[in-house]
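Please, structure for the following, as tokens.
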Amino acid sequence: MNQEPFDQIRILVTGGTIDKTYSPVEGVLGFSRTHVIAMLQQGRVPVPEAKVETVLLKDSLEMTDADRDEILRACTTARESRLLITHGTDTMILTAAHLARADLGKTIVLVGAMVPYTFSNSDGLFNLGFALACLQLLAPSVYVCMNGRVFPWDKVCKNRQAGRFETTNP
């Protein structure tokens, strides 16, 4: 019997801009819940809700080493061999490095957005779909998938001025 492509995939939610919403009462961006399930439904991606696990809902600038350990623990205990992690873009590379050092033998892809999913012109839906496709094709290691590109965890940087991720200089 053939396995479904999503049988070996788990999505770990950690927060970041992709999941932020605007509170008109407080006038700030924050978190209420993940939007990943709605995004998957919008893209007609048949990933069961049980495969989406909220580990954290945090701005990545507020993430601590303990938070990264919690993400690592979720990766370690996941029975699936392919893990997609939604993450804030500011410290995504730090978390990718933390996971890579653990050498779990799994395919791990980190993805996020520069604009919240709930805002018009968000890159979140595209980035999530692209990362999910890449996750199914990549060899075991840790990657960052942003802006239509796949980056090995140790060869990527965020260009804040351009608002995109790029390959690091050799």
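DSSP finds four helices and ten strands in the chain. The radius of gyration is 15 Å.
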